[in-house]
C-alpha cells in the first residue's frame, strides 16, 4: 500500500518539540484532521505505518513554512501546490484544508471553518432526494454535504486543471467518495447548455469573486440558464463573498439580485452570515 502523510507548521512544530523534550510519543493528525492517533518517536525519526519513518532533518527543512502543506510519499516531501496560470496551494485550518489562489483563500476560514461554511450553505437549499448542481466545485466540500443531506445525485463542475490537481491530493474528498457524486471537469458557463430543462432541485453556485475574468458567472445569460435547468420550487444559493465587507444594501449585491430577479428568481434574500444570496424558482 502506498501510504500518504501530510505535514504542516503546527504538526511539525509539535513533533519537533516532542523530540527535543525527549518525549517518545506524540498524538496528532497526519491526514489533515480526518483522524488522530499516537505516533512513536525513536531516535531521530517519527515512526509511521508499515515500517516507514520520517527523520527530524526532513521535518526541520519545512518547519518555517506556516501556511503550506507538504505531502510525504515514497520517502519524499513535496508541497501541495500548483504553479500554472497562477499560484494554487492547499492551506491548513483547524478542520479541513482550504484552497488558496494567488494569496486569496477560496473558503472562509477566519470566522468559520470551511466545513461549517459548506454545511450551512448546503443545508439552506438541499433536501433529501434532490438532484443537485454544484458549480465551481473547488475542493468538493459543498458536494460532500449535499450527499450528507441525502441528495440522490450531485453533479459538481470545476473548470481549473490546477484546482482539480489540488483536490485530488486532498484526502477529505477521497474519504467521502460516493457513486452518487459525478465530478465534471468543465466550464460551467458552457457545460450548462447540455443540461435538460428542469433537471435540478437545488443549485449551489459558488463562483470565484467577481472580476472581469469571472463576470460571466454573475451575468444575466448564466442566470437565465440556471433558471431553465431548475425545477419549480427549487432553491439556489449564490455565493458572492465580501471582499470589501459587502452588505445587503451595497450596489454589487443589489445589481446581482436584480439580474436574478429579471431571470425569474423569487424570494431573493442576502444572507450576511453566509455571504451569499438565497433564491427560489417558484
Question: Top keywords for this entry?
Answer:
single chain; seven-stranded mixed β-sheet; alpha+beta; 282 residues; elongated; four-stranded antiparallel β-sheet
Summarize the model shown.
With 282 residues, this protein is α+β, with helices and mostly antiparallel strands.
* Basic shape: elongated
Binned, the helix content reads: 25-40%
Strand order of the largest sheet: 14-13-12-15-16-18-17
Q: List how many beta strands DSSP finds.
A: 18
What is the count of DSSP helices, taking H or I runs of 4+ residues?
9
* Largest sheet geometry: 7 strands, mixed
Structural class: alpha+beta
Helices and strands, in N-to-C order? Answer: EHEEEEHEEEEEEHEHEHHEHEHEHEE
Poorly predicted tracts of residues: none
Radius of gyration: 21 Å
Strand content: 25-35%
Distance between the termini: 51 Å
**Mean pLDDT over the full residue set:** 93
